[in-house]
Amino acid sequence: MEIMNLVVTGTLGAGKSTFILSASEMQVAAPDKHNTGDEAFFPQDTTASIDFETLQFDEEMAIHIYGTPSQVRFDFMWEILIERAHAYVLLIAAHRPSEFHYARRILNFMNQHAQIPMIIGITHNDCEGAWRPEDIALALGYHNSTKQPPIVAVNTQDRASVAMALITLMEQCL
Ligand SMILES: Nc1nc2c(ncn2[C@@H]2O[C@H](COP(=O)(O)OP(=O)(O)OP(=O)(O)O)[C@@H](O)[C@H]2O)c(=O)[nH]1
Ligand SMILES: [Mg+2]
């Protein structure tokens, strides 16, 4: 069986858990289980407070989606997740510019640990005070649009929107 490991990371309250839940709801062949941990990643007695869902497409192909722990400090858990990841999504809440600095720190951390396909998903676009994606790109230090990863607006509460984001990520992997 081919397993693709995806990591969903991002700023506080950006919608990481909601994204992973929405993704799990769109699978074609339901494996009928909700996981909270993965023995392939963690010893069974470890209490790992991460989001985890499996998307089983058929007997040959599954996607495992992991959310990074909600803490500002980067620790071994982040390293384990990112070193095994095949691709990742960085979610940023558009209405919380005070968190953009943290998003930059995540980007730096990720770049140091893995050169893998990624996209940036801008959430909470419907909220008051939301920055436009192009302005967020500038705030993240992307001054040249040809050198930036795909930056897509995503409503994590909307399955179709999450599916579109995942397709964009898959395109980066090809
Ligand atoms: N309006 C709006 N609300 C959203 C959007 N995405 C997520 N939310 C809501 O934002 C809140 C936080 O979402 P979570 O999925 O818990 O975010 P998280 O990144 O897992 O949060 P932490 O784990 O605490 O960092 C929830 O109430 C979601 O329903 C969005 O695009 N627009
Ligand atoms: Mg969460």
From TrEMBL:
Gene3D superfamilies: P-loop containing nucleotide triphosphate hydrolases (3.40.50.300). SUPFAM superfamilies: P-loop containing nucleoside triphosphate hydrolases (SSF52540). Signal peptide: none annotated. This is GTPase.
